[in-house]
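dude i think i finally got it to work??
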Amino acid sequence: MKLEEGQIVRKDGRVYVGYRLPNGKIVLALDPDSYQDIVDMPDPIVIGFGVGIFNYTTDTLWFTVEGSGGGWSWAGATQLGSIASGDNLMFRVGSIATRVKPASATTDDVTLMFTAYSDAYVTEIGTYPVIVSYHWIDSAAMTLLSLDDFETGTLEGWTQSGWTGIAIATDYALSHGKSAKAEKYVLNDSGTWTGSIRKTFAVPAATEAYLIANVKYVGYIKQTQTFPARVQAREMRISKAGSIIVRTGTSPYLLNQPSTVTDRQTNWLRMVAPIDVDETAQYRLETPYYLYSSTSNLPSSLQGKSSEPCPTTSLERSSR
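look at this
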């Protein structure tokens, strides 16, 4: 993918913005539209986001980010870190601003300003703005089409692909006593997989419709084997017919803090995806992940761990 100066390319629910530097170029990758449901949100709302940065220059670069607009209270410049020449990294900023909770559905357009430095935040190279639209929806004001809280003890039509299996569970429930949990156990193997949980919905004619999912990814290590292991999630996303609608970045909202029971446990996230109306279609909640559980193909930095990786994805969701 070639980008000219300041050119924006939309692909798989994300925008890529390229900027030319004296010794190469950088590319910023982030979600141009963030969808949030104001129901049960705190007041004020703490806002974070994620961004991928590709460094195609010949030097190591340092980056900061700060925001403006939307009537938000911004935290000021946040140091993201450094990226070596030829590398790319995904940065997650847990809190960049706060906003008074909207009383009803609305949209905020904000500007995220990225600044590149040739050394540790001293010599500035340039600034690179990206506009992100935050769409605040009010699901309580909409007609509920389907609510799957799994309290009946059934999967309510959800199936899985890429996991070992899917079942009703109580160990990762959020607001109810149960959730649907898909998991995969790996012994002596390494590679990249994509696990998905999927269901088909019939959406009638309407002005708008959304799929709202409370999701959690957990990658934990059982100390029962004698081989090195590592499990890492790339992202979580909602897709239809192979096209990504939303993905972790600016889109999910943090619902609670992680437990310390497992080694690599993420928070519950709320993901909101705009979906098509007046049709029947299958939607997928996908988790691409890496598993390293053999000495072959294992990065040297991961040597010395004895474990069995078990990635899982849990789900509580609804559609409106």
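The radius of gyration is 21 Å.
im so relieved honestly
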